[in-house]
Amino acid sequence: MRPPSAQSHDLAVVGAGAAGLWSALCAGRRLARKQLPPDRLSIVVLDAREKFGAKILMSGGTRCNLTHVEVTPDDFRGGNRNRIARVLRAMSEKEARRIFEEELGLPTKTEPNGKVFPADDSARSVLQALVRGLERHDIAVRGGSRCVDLVPKGDGRWQLHCVDPGGAPLPPLFARRVILGTGGLSFPKSGSDGAGLEMMRRLGHTIVYPVPALTPVVLDSPYHAHLAGIATPVALDYLEDGRSVARCVGPMLWTHFGLSGPAALDVSGLWARTRADRPTIRREVFASFLPEESTESLEARWLESARRHPASTLRTLVTDLPRRLLDTLLEHSGLDPARPLAQTPKDERRRALLALLRFPLPVIDVLGFNKAEVTSGGVPLEEIDPKMESRILPGIHLVGEMVHVDGRLGGFNFQWAWSSGCVAGESAVDALLSPPGGDLTLHTRR
Ligand SMILES: Cc1cc2nc3c(=O)[nH]c(=O)nc-3n(C[C@H](O)[C@H](O)[C@H](O)COP(=O)(O)OP(=O)(O)OC[C@H]3O[C@@H](n4cnc5c(N)ncnc54)[C@H](O)[C@@H]3O)c2cc1C
Predict the structure, then answer these.
(1) Which of 46, 109, 319, 402 is the most exposed place for a label (fewest CB within 10 A)?
(2) How confident is the model at residue 296 (pLDDT cuts 50, 70, 90)?
(3) Is the pLDDT of residue 446 over 80?
(4) Best mutation site among 55, 117, 147, 201 for ligand 1 pocket (most ligand atoms within 8 Å of CB)
(5) What is the rounded end-to-end Cα distance, in angstroms, of the chain?
(6) Tell me: the pLDDT tens digits for 19-54?
(7) Does ligand 1 lie within 6 Å of residue 65's CB atom?
(8) Architecture of the domain whose range is 7-211+376-433
């Protein structure tokens, strides 16, 4: 039997998730914009799974919140603000949306909270649009190719060792440039299990310890299980050593283990990141269940109502919260919800205001990677140059969740995938077309 023959490509994109697919698309678009034929460079996309793009399909409750109407560096954590801003500028949310609509034929819509979805609410349409886009640039995705090792060949090329889903070695593959978009560790059953990060660690990169983010929160309280199923809008204030760090606003859901829903998910990564990096820091989370109110405005309203209706109680005054939640918050603060406000001493009134506007939530943990929408941690931006190329491994670009940048809930993580993928895809093509030592393009086609 003849040994499997080696294949050479100009660019290999490893990982056909959002970041890898967009990198390849932007590579193809770059060639087209330079009016070069698609076969000017040989580009291949590899994915461990036969059915790639699992995370796109499951995203946004299978509706895929593909970006947000307004994206700023403050919507992200991890890297340096200026570096993140620079990456975002290369492919803004408006440009990503324009490409989806005008080039990939995917109409989109904006919801009142600013989240952008495909107009047909179908994540599958997003994946199909991306694949269609790649086909237009003659770029194939090869599923069932798990990359297990990357070896520098000394002649500027990288050798990719890949195995099939059964673990059998596939024919050796060489590439002059590699874009690594193998994701973080969240939802490992979707295909991203941290293998790419481990390869980068072996090859000399620092890996910021990965922790789950955008994941439900575990409480140690006597009341949360009793409140399970109740959802209300909240603002969660996150403090470190008494200093306010972030305010996460949105719906929150009580569960039998603690909290879920957008506001709780947003706080989870901050809490878990600091626990991993600076465990001695005191972390506190306070909830406001009436986020539009301040203690002054709420007290003034209560006093006015009590003046007009002397029998008013906290229960009759606070009508915006489910009774079970209101009673629990007040009783946990040692207050009687049925007591008329007119008979409530000032210090108790003060405690009632704090129970509703600054209720301490005893967070003791967050759920793990199996429940986390995203990973905080990965290759630090300091080890990646402005072309998303590794400063340690020339010819390797890093994109998406591989990088220690994670966004808040609302389409920001896909936007990071589009923006970082664009930078990597375009700069890889530019480098391939004008290498320092002249044009060495490999013409071996897939
Ligand atoms: C349930 C859920 C819902 C989400 N909803 C949203 C949302 O609505 N909006 C939003 O902005 N973000 C959302 N996210 C986050 C978003 O999906 C991710 O941030 C984004 O998909 C990351 O893209 P990526 O390409 O970097 O990684 P991934 O999507 O994880 O893709 C990595 C790919 O690499 C492949 N791979 C891994 N290892 C190898 C290897 N060794 N060799 C070859 N291939 C490999 C995997 O099979 C996978 O296809 C959600 C996440 C989850 C889990």
Answers:
(1) 319
(2) very high
(3) no
(4) 55
(5) 22
(6) 999 999 999 999 999 999 999 999 999 999 999 999
(7) yes
(8) 3-Layer(bba) Sandwich (3.50)
Q: Is the CB of 13 under 6 A from ligand 1?
A: no
Nearest 5 degrees, angle CA 191-CA 58-CA 140?
A: 55
Looking at the chain, the domain(s) classified CATH 3.50.50.60 span: 7-211+376-433
State which ligand 1 atom lies nearest to the alpha carbon of 186: 53
Model confidence pTM above 0.90: yes
Instruction: Write down the pLDDT at residue 306.
Output: 87
* CB atoms inside a 10 Å sphere around CB 358: 13
Please give the distance of CA 203 from its chain centroid, rounded to a whole number: 25
* DSSP secondary structure letter of residue 99: I
CATH 2.40.30.10 boundaries in the chain: 216-367
Q: 107-123: string of b/e by CB count within 10 Å (b at 16+)?
A: ebeeeeeebbbbeeebb
Q: Express each pLDDT in 229-280 by its tens digit.
A: 999 999 999 999 999 999 999 999 999 999 999 999 999 999 999 999 999 9
Tell me, using a 6 A CB cutoff, whether residue 199 lines ligand 1.
Answer: no
Q: Is the CB of 78 under 6 A from ligand 1?
A: no
Ligand 1 centroid – CA 370 distance (Å): 13
Per-residue pLDDT reduced to its tens digit, 358-380: 999 999 999 999 999 999 999 99
> Ligand 1, residues 190, 373, 403, 405: which to mutate, most atoms within 8 A of Cβ?
373
Task: For domain 216-367, give the CATH number.
Answer: 2.40.30.10
CA dist., res. 355 & res. 331, Å (int): 9
